[in-house]
Amino acid sequence: MSVQEDGGPVGLGDDLADRIPALLRYARAITDPVTADDLVQTTLLKALEHGHTFRGDAALGTWLHRILHHAFVDHLRRQREVPGGDLWDAVESRWRESDYTVDAAVVALRAGEAGALRDSLTRLPVRYRSAVVLHDMEGLTGAEVAEVQGVSLPAAKQRIRRGRMMLVDALAGADARRRATKGVPMDCWDARALVSDYLDAHLDHDAARALETHLEGCPTCPPLYSALVASRGAVSHLRAADAVISDEVADRLRDLVSGTDASA
């Protein structure tokens, strides 16, 4: 990329197009496809808007990954994702036990299955999930991971180490989850991503039936589904009777908007 006399980039838009595949790959490894596509779009828009701030101190790819990472963190904060401290404490406690181990063959087998690997990655808190994907999938150095996440190099290395340990535990647990959901169509993440459309009656017959079958056989998804139904219903009840205007008032408001007066 060439640089202007004032230090800003020239032709940033041309370079962005070449970075889209890598951004999509990273985003889809840490979240669902719909959110991933939105994050990439947000990243590109922010990069174009703030392109003048890119001085070349870091690689363009690192700068873009940093924008995407922070956009994802902001998204999770709005969703109020539970922090991952407790999960790490539980994993570390197991790994500290000298007699703790896993079946390496099972972990390797599950890691080789894209669905199981994706499901296990989504079980990692975002800081660890992102660090592992950036380092082990995208090939960023520890220093570049630190740059993306806005932390020190020792912190980035710690996140990579912890994330790998968490991923091993998640993959090892995937075998138990697999046995518990044997014969249940679609994986849990895919099912949970469809629930909102199901509640709004936006799924076709086959997709709706597949989701219903999953809910009938899955040991973990039904409580989440019930919680979504309850929260959705509670929000709908906020529309109290005294908050709904009468037909007479509605007619008068429409008349005012249209420039007439019903009382004349």
TrEMBL record:
Any GO BP annotation: response to stress
InterPro entries membership: Anti_sigma_zinc_sf, RNA_pol_sigma-70-like, RNA_pol_sigma-70_dom, RNA_pol_sigma70_ECF_CS, RNA_pol_sigma70_r2, RNA_pol_sigma70_r4_t2, RNA_pol_sigma_r2, RNA_pol_sigma_r3/r4-like
Name this polypeptide is given: RNA polymerase sigma factor
RNA polymerase sigma factor 70 region 4 type domain: residues covered: 116-167
Alphabetic keyword roster: DNA-binding, Sigma factor, Transcription, Transcription regulation
Domain RNA polymerase sigma-70 region: 21-80
Xref: Gene3D superfamilies: 1.10.1740.10, Anti-sigma factor, zinc-finger domain (1.10.10.1320), Winged helix-like DNA-binding domain superfamily/Winged helix DNA-binding domain (1.10.10.10)
MF annotations from Gene Ontology: DNA binding; sigma factor activity
Family that this chain belongs to: Belongs to the sigma-70 factor family. ECF subfamily.
Record organism: Propioniciclava coleopterorum
Pfam families, sorted: Sigma70_r2, Sigma70_r4_2, zf-HC2
Location of the Putative zinc-finger domain: 190-221
